[in-house]
Amino acid sequence: MSLSTLLQRFTEPETLKMAKLGRELRAKGIDVIDLSLGEPDFDTPEHIKQAAIKAVNDNWSHYTPVPGYLELREAVCTKLKRDNNLDYKPEHIVVSTGAKQSLANTILALVDDDDEVVIPTPYWVTYSELVKIARGKVVEVRSKVEDGFKINAAQLEAVITPKTKAFLFSSPCNPSGAVYSREELAALVEVFKKYPQIYVIADEIYEYINYVGDHQSIAQFDEIKTAWYS
Ligand SMILES: Cc1ncc(COP(=O)(O)O)c(C=O)c1O
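Above: the input record for the complex with pyridoxal-5'-phosphate. Below: its predicted structure, written as tokens.
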């Protein structure tokens, strides 16, 4: 069998390997605490199940506009205003089938051959694989345990080159749990202000799985919203 070079460029995620190992050990009767996959340990809540069933019964099952139904994008804007005090319009929103799909679409839309994508470590393993699919280059910035697994402005600026296309991070972070404060984000934004060609890709999927309590989005800083956005 000859697979495409695209498929050969990436490897099986360590998280999936660990999840498989966890299942195998559990099947042997060993008590395993599996921290591999970021999946909640509860079933889909009842009101969400019922809303999905109602949507099918109401025939919300036809092809959608490419960015998603307008009503859904309006609801996303309402959430962003209510929970994050962020002003977005439906035309700024694209709905995808999960965060992984959103990240894949974003990276494939932005990253060209040899473009550099800066990613603080430790990071969710999918990030580097998606950059590889796009033929980009991953530039890791090592965070330190004594800094709470967060990077600072000097570390960020030290790795920026004319090839830097994007900065990709999650806060709260999988796997470290690190949460950037408003001040820490503001310090990074001061660097991005000097390099307007860099796109910031903020994965905020764990907004509510947060052991600090306060979640801050880097989208609150106007400089992060690019000219085409406003
Ligand atoms: C940081 C991070 N982003 C995105 C995802 C995937 O999100 P989804 O299941 O919505 O594709 C995960 C799943 O583990 C994750 O840890």
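Notes for the reader.
The pocket of pyridoxal-5'-phosphate is lined by residues 38, 98-100, 124, 170, 174, 203, 205 (CB under 6 Å).
The mean pLDDT is 92.
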